[in-house]
Amino acid sequence: MRIATSEALYRRACQLMPAGVNSPVRAFRAVGGTPIFYRQGQGSRFTDVDGNTFVDYVMSWGPLILGHAHPEVVEAVKKAAERGLSFGAPCEAEVALAEKVVASYPGCELVRFVSSGTEAVMAAIRVARGFTGRPRILKFEGCYHGHSDSLLVKAGSGLATFGTPSSGGVPAALAELTVVVPLDDEQALEEAFARYGSELACAIIEPIPANAGLLLQRREFLARLADLCRASGALLIFDEVISGFRVARGGAAQVFGITPDLATFGKVIGGGMPVGAFGGRRDIMEQVAPLGSVYQAGTLSGNPVAMAAGLATLQVLEREAGWEKLERLGQELELALLPILSGRGQLVRLGSIFWLYLDTASPAPRRFDAIAPHAAERYRALHRALLERGVYLAPSAYEVGFLSLAHTSDDLAFTAQALQQALAEVYW
Ligand code: PLP
Fold this sequence. Notes:
This protein is an alpha/beta fold. It has 2 domains: 4-69 and 320-425, Aspartate Aminotransferase, domain 1, CATH 3.90.1150.10; 71-319, Aspartate Aminotransferase, domain 2, CATH 3.40.640.10. It is 38% helix and 16% strand. It has 13 helices and 17 strands. It has helices at residues 4-16, 71-83, 92-104, 117-132, 172-175, 186-196, 219-232, 251-256, 282-285, 304-319, 322-341, 374-388, 409-425; strands spanning 38-42, 45-48, 53-56, 110-114, 136-140, 153-154, 161-162, 164-165, 178-181, 200-205, 235-239, 262-265, 276-280, 346-350, 353-357, 391-392, 401-402. The protein has an 8-stranded mixed β-sheet with strand order 4-13-12-11-10-5-9-7, with helices on both faces. It starts with a helix and ends with a helix. Bound molecules: pyridoxal-5'-phosphate.
C-alpha cells in the first residue's frame, strides 16, 4: 500500500500540532505507523489522500450511523447553511431536535444542547452537584466520559479508592472528589456507597462501556447501581454519548429498562456535526440557568446547521427501522467473522457496536482489569495487516468498531476475507 501523501502530510502536521493531530488516538501511536489521511468518505467506505480505499469501521468514532455523507443529511446541512451558519439565538431546528430527544429517551423531560460529549458530561455533573449540594462523584474504571478534569481519573488499587489524576494538569485535590470503582462488582459498589453515599452528587456510567473495549454489563449490576443511587440520594447519570440513538431509539436506558435521572448524548445525535446534549428529569434540569443557579452556556449551542444534521440522521433512522437493520447487520458480521476468529479471538457485540478481542483464554471481560494485556500486542499486528487489505479498524485495541446502515453484505464478506488472510500472516 502506497501512503506517500499521508506520510508527507503527517510530517507537515507534526510541525504544527502536537503529534500532528487534534485528538490523541488519531496519531496511530497504539498501532504504529503513519496515520492515514482521509480525503473523502461515501457510505461505508473512504478514500485516502493516496487513492487507497478502505471499508471504514471507525465511522468518525460513532456519529456516522448512516455512513459517510448520507445524501439526506448532506442536503439538510446544505439547506440550513444557506439560511445562515450560526445565529446564537433560538431557531426552529433545535426545537424539532429537542422534541425528538424528549419523545425518544426514557425519563427525559428537558434537554439542553451543547457542542460535544465532553461538554454534555461536564454540564450534567455540575447540574448533579448543584441539585444535590454534594461534592463527590462516582465513576467506573474503564469508562470514558470526555476530557473534563473531574473525569480524567482512574482508580488505584483496592476496591473503591479516591481517584488519582490520569492526566497531567488535573489537580489532585479535584481528582480526590471522584470515587472510582470497578465495573461488574456489586460488592465494591456497595462498599463505595456505604462509605461515600451521603456525599455523592451522582454516579456516572457508560451503561454499555465502549471505551476500554466493549465491557458488557449485566442488567443486575446496573439495576443495583440504580437502587444504591436512589437509596443514597445520588443522581444516576447514564453517559449515552456512544450508545444514545445507536443501540435503540431510547439508548441503553431502553435496552436495559432502567431510567436514569440524567443522560448525556453526543455522536449520533449530531449526525457527524459537533453536537452534544444533556437532559433528564424536569425538576433536576430546572436547575440549569437561567431557570436555576447552575450556569451553562455556549456560543454555538443549538447551532442550526448541526441541529439539521442530527435531525435528518434521526429521521432516516426512524423511517428505515434503522435499529432493527443494524442488529441484523451485527448478526451477519458475527456469522462472517466468528468462524475465522475461532481459537484466535472473540467478537464482543451489542447491536452495531463491536470489539475485536484477541484472546480466547477466558470469557469476554466485563471489567477493565480483566482485559488480557497481550490482546493489545496482537491487535497491533493485525491492525496493520487489515489496513494493507483495505479494512480500517480503530487504531487502538481498546477502541470499538461501528457498523452503519451503509455497510453491506459485500463489505462484510470483503472484511471476512481480509481477516482470514491477515490472520494467516500474523502469529501468536
Ligand atoms: N462520553 C463517552 C461515553 C464517549 O465515548 C465520549 C467520546 O468518545 C465522550 C463522552 C466525549 O465526547 P466528545 O469526544 O464529543 O467530547
